[in-house]
Amino acid sequence: MDRDRRDIKLVTDEKIAETSSKGNQEKWFDAETNQWYKLDQFGYEALSETIISILLEKSNIEKDTPFTFVRYEPVRVVVHNRERTGCVSDNFLKEGQSVITINHLLSRVLGCSLKDKLLSLTSDKKRIAYLAEATKDYTGLDYFGEYLTLLFEIDSLFLNDDRHLNNIAVIKSGGKYDYCPIFDNGAGLISDTRLSPMDIEPKALISSLRARPFNMSFTRQMNTARALYGKQLSMPALKRDDIMEHLMPILEFYPQRDRRIIADRVVECILTKHRFL
């Protein structure tokens, strides 16, 4: 992977700021190439997106499941006359398709807040089952429980703590629905260096993180979904050298002083969580 610098002039009136639970994530759509650009905002989100998509290539997702995932590449782009690090991905939407979040979809059906509905249920298992079955009933997506489980497995493996209810979505086209490719993993691998400072040992940071949207440990959320819908994700054994082989070219996009620390954080996350998969 060559260190790519793309002279794309991204200016304010072209920006799409997607609100997440952590703030506004800057994204741009390039109609000429039919690609999305997303910038590092709070740390090394682009690196996280890229390495996770590379490692998911080793998984069973597109071999044994009806689901797919988005591929990312790191880039340097010119934004407001300043060079920034980000990542780029192909647009997975076809003409006439749009992304609709589960929060928007089910809140509209319920006529009230989906969050409030979930909080009214008396167990984690009931909450996950409701989210899966209500979405299935409304969209006709028979394997949405399995899809949700796969999301939680990926979040657990890579410690993505930003899978809020607006970060789970389906594709809508006319009156029909389809599964979204798995995307938006940039909050994984403790990439937010504001909330997870670089001078704190990765093990301490890992133990403090909580899974969303149900605010529990990653392993518990994953296992609760698996108890309902079965194991979905399989990954081969990942070793430090294997991870570093893919990580090294991406680290070239980051300052030399930060590369060892980022690498240690990424490797520690994956090796710690892989054994629970």
Describe this structure in words.
With 277 residues, the chain is an alpha+beta fold. The chain has a domain at 97-229. It is built from ten helices and nine strands. The strands form two sheets. It has a six-stranded mixed β-sheet, with helices on one face. Helix 1 (45-56) crosses helix 9 (240-251). Residues 11-21 have low confidence and may be disordered.
The count of DSSP E runs of length 2 or more, i.e. the number of strands, is 9
Largest β sheet strand count, sense and barrel closure: 6 strands, mixed
> Residue-averaged pLDDT, rounded?
91
Low-confidence runs of at least 5 consecutive residues: 11-21
Binned strand content: 15-25%
Structural Rg: 18 Å
Helix content: 40-55%
- Strand pairing plus helix content: what structural class? alpha+beta
Separation, N- and C-terminal Cα atoms: 29 Å
- Determine the number of helices (DSSP H or I, runs of at least 4 residues): 10
Would you list the SSEs in sequence order as H and E?
A: EEEEHHEEEHHHHEEHHHH
- Taken from the alpha-carbon principal axes, the silhouette is globular
What is the quaternary state of this protein? Answer: single chain
What topology, given as strand order, has the largest sheet?
1-5-6-4-3-2
